[in-house]
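Notes to self after the Tuesday call (sharing in case useful).
The group wants a holo model before anyone commits to mutagenesis around the pocket. I volunteered. Ligand is zinc ion. Logging inputs and output together so the record is complete.
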Amino acid sequence: MSARAPLPVNVICGYLGAGKTTLLNRLLTESKERIIVMVNDFGDIAVDAALVSARSADTIQLSNGCICCSMAGGMFDAFERALSLREAADRLVIEASGVAEPARLTAFARAEPDLDCRSVVVVVDPFTLGQRLQDDRIGGVVRRQIEGADVAYLSRSDRKPDEQSRKARARVMLTNPSSAIHYSMGKAFLNAMDAPHVDMTVSTLPGDAHADLFSRATVLQDDAPEREGFLDRLRAAALSLHRAKGFVRFASEDAPSLVQLAGGEITVCKPPNDPGPGPAVRLVLIGTDDAALRRFQSEHVTSDPQPARSGTI
Amino acid sequence: MPTTVYSARRIITMDPTRPVATHVAVSVDGTILGVGTPNDMSHWTDTVRDDRFADKVLMPGFVEGHAHLMEGSIWEYTYLGHFGRIAPDGHHWPGVGTTEALISRLQECASVAPDGPVVGWGFDPLFVPGERLTRQHLDQVSQERPVIVFHSNMHLITANSVAMDLAGYGCGTDLPGVIRNTDGSLHGELHEMGAMFPVMRRIGTSFRQLTGGRDAIWNFARSACRTGVTTSTDLLNELGDDAVDELRSVTGEEGFPLRLVPMLSAMSMPTAQLTDRAKVLAARSTDRLRLGGVKIVTDGSIQGFTAQMKTPGYYRGTAQGIWNIAPDALRTMATYLNRAGIQMHIHVNGDAASLAAIEALEAALSEQYLPDHRHTLQHCQMADQAQLRRAAALGCCVNFFANHLYYFGDKHHDITMGPERANRMNPCRSALDLGLPLAIHSDAPVTPLGPLFTAWCAVNRLTDSGRRLGAAERITLDEALHAITLGAAFTLKLDGEVGSIEVGKRADFAVLEDDPYEMGGEALKDVGVWGTVSGGRAIEAGSF
Ligand SMILES: [Zn+2]
Ligand SMILES: [Zn+2]
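Result:
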């Protein structure tokens, strides 16, 4: 609709009190860009909308208006508004509500040609993550927020990482091994925010019941695999995989590569940002053939899936 | 100034001290002055006798405790639903049973307007046999103009090739919600707002248009009049100053026949500002516009698999539901609002959501006792007995979605909830036995506005296919009529003004062609509606 380049969009998600607003405010302070902020956190009390608006190009209230589930109408209006402000802004940052499913927000940014979906950041409070994940009311949404993110930001860990943040890191990695984990908002983090979002969701027709058939598997391996052998195994599994994404440090290589599989095509490239230390193989797979997923998983020495043990990673 | 004395075949007052009457005296400003026999009317000397209802039955004007103004605006598009439905202008649109019928109805509507997008609504593929509606089907409607069809849940559309092109969707498109065939070509379905947005934006169809405007408000009043409704909520509105000005001016127009009760969306501003805003709004109320209530939405819908369900979750499928507000935040919000004395209407569909709301209200009311708060659980379709007991102990009201039993009952039985929980849905009998103030609703436009039909659902609990869901949860005709009058008025704190025909209350009546008691509960949905009397003025359906 406009000749201008599409507007870069970041989604910042994370449960209540994880530190989203603190991160956002620091981003506004440190960034040289003109940022439109979309706030969807009104249920959460804590948001200081005045502070946000003092620093940004514009603030859009992402409120709810759809009759049956209430989310959709408000999002619609908010994105229209953001696009109407395109000329005045370099970036749109969406602070999602504490219970927002990031996939619902990134769907806009990915589908709309005038938007350019960049990294989804999940802000994680290391001190409460374990408890949140086990809460049967909100554990599911907290897990999906981590699964849907490209970058995990562990708040309150600027100082020396302690036992809590090491545990949280292991939990995040186990939930989404393909996310880059950051502890501070330095240059590496800002670079990571600028990378394109990689979607790991699936769309199917309702009634096909395909959505139920998709499974997700995590592969973590401490030892670096041989490049050719690993890619051969991935290629062999490609037909039964819908998507794969993650970081692999191949044997005799210093830096990890970003490995992705989509539409049957495997790409291996330099990661847009440093994924940080971790197992040599950190991969998440999505596919309809559960047996194939497990076969690929078993071909790799997976780390113990208990987060407690992974705390030592 | 003369007092009007209306006579009727029968007046069902809902006033226990005088359940039936034949005459009602109404002052010129629309207040009920007397109810009773011809003799009881002799007190007034300067009277005009009005016998136009001599062969009709009067009831208190019906109160719809949960509907949306969108019912008035959605008819801008062409209706394509499975169930026959009456538009605000009175046109009866038969249900669409086949893809061919859908295509020809859209072709017809395309031929009426020479250009621009062709838009349909209300479509539900589950009711149409054969191949699911595709892009190619809609290409038969037009290959030059965009054609889109909203599914009944408003979360899906099917679009033709022109519309897909506008959004830049093509054969190679791999996006969430953009559905493809096995060969990679576009199917035509777009799921959820993200995927729908680029298409809707480019053809100028926005949800904003569907939430207000003078025509929509008047259309809503037209539908209300057809169904005997004289008071209705608009149960989720951001109520910005412009919207309030518009509502005040339109409802204030000469002859506007409805009391409208919009509820402020709790998500429209930070919680700390909500209480002030609700009070400002309350002060802007008029006779026909009642402001001050707040609506909170916690989860999604059962048929959309977005309601929050406790274990064991959905009967079929692995859906997890969504939260629109975190349970912790709900608790804080409820505490704030309750402390400020503001009444809350809380949307809860699944039983995990109703539990979260009950816990939040329990915390709020423990912190500050609020006499006669009337906090209302809206929909509350899956609440179990233990939750109902807690809600009763807290003094909450429930407004059940009785129409779901008919429109979605079979789907709940077979797919979403399974037999046991489908039988316990919208348990009106249990609520009344526990002493919970009860209302029942349509959630129009999700299902059609029509309190008599809604009451029929609560009395009979029959699904579309004729299956009876949870016979033990049926209520009597008396109880159902109470729920659509005084019961609903109570949840809006308007039971002192409307909901029964009593001296001193507003002269808001539903004018019926038939007597519900002669027809009986099984035929309640077939009771004819002539129109309404609103604030003393008789208004025939279709006359405006
Ligand atoms: Zn909805
Ligand atoms: Zn509703």
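Two things stood out.
Residues A 66, 68-69, 72; B 155 surround zinc ion (ligand 1) (CB under 6 Å).
Residues 453 and 525 of chain B are 5 Å apart (CA to CA).
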